[in-house]
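Reopening this one. Same input as before:
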Amino acid sequence: MTCTVDPMREFQALQEEIVRCRGCPRLVEWRERSAREKVRRFRDQEYWGRPIPAFGDPDASLVIVGLAPAAHGGNRTGRMFTGDRSGDWLFEALHRFGFANQPESTHRRDGLILRDAVIVAAARCAPPGNKPLPEEMNRCRSFLRRELTMFTSARVLVTLGQIAFRAFLAAWRENGKEPPGGLKFAHAGEWEFPGGMVLLSSYHPSQQNTLTGKLTRSMFHRIFRRARRIVDSRQPR
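Same output, byte for byte:
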């Protein structure tokens, strides 16, 4: 008798493992202290204060790799990119190009649904100063590495920022796969991987980038317009 593994159940089990993780003492202390002390504008809210699981469908065509949750964004809401300015940019773009049912995301029960997309991150806990240490990145990358093996339907993978770009490539290599040559982070970089998946690199929609004009709406839209075209061109006919 053959025992088959349910991919969705396996993915959910991994997300539950992520939420329970206490492997980085500095991050555990920071995420929990941020959840206790809060900030004035969210003082009446109960914070999540734990690692953030993936958001979306593991069978999706589009995979998005972010950096890490914000102390008063994802660490508060418990959902990737939900409740901060970076998320405002991301979900507006995803909605514009048909990957989300609405352009805004404020909390976990706001009705947001991703369409043929899934969001993961290089680090799952909010780091002090938004800067995880190298050893914390290395430890957390095991989750990303395992998730990548589950994304068998991925047609496009978008990395948001240079740290996410490097984390993805490291996880890819740790899975025993060699990426194409000549990869160097740049906004709107594009490379096709063996098997047909396309990697798109983008600046992160952080306030540091968006308020200074390093990343504009049109530049960000270009990434997801391209992702939409690739996904649509590779759908079964």
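So the earlier flakiness isn't reproducible anymore. For the record, The helical segments are 7-20, 25-37, 74-77, 85-96, 134-150, 162-174, 207-210, 217-233.
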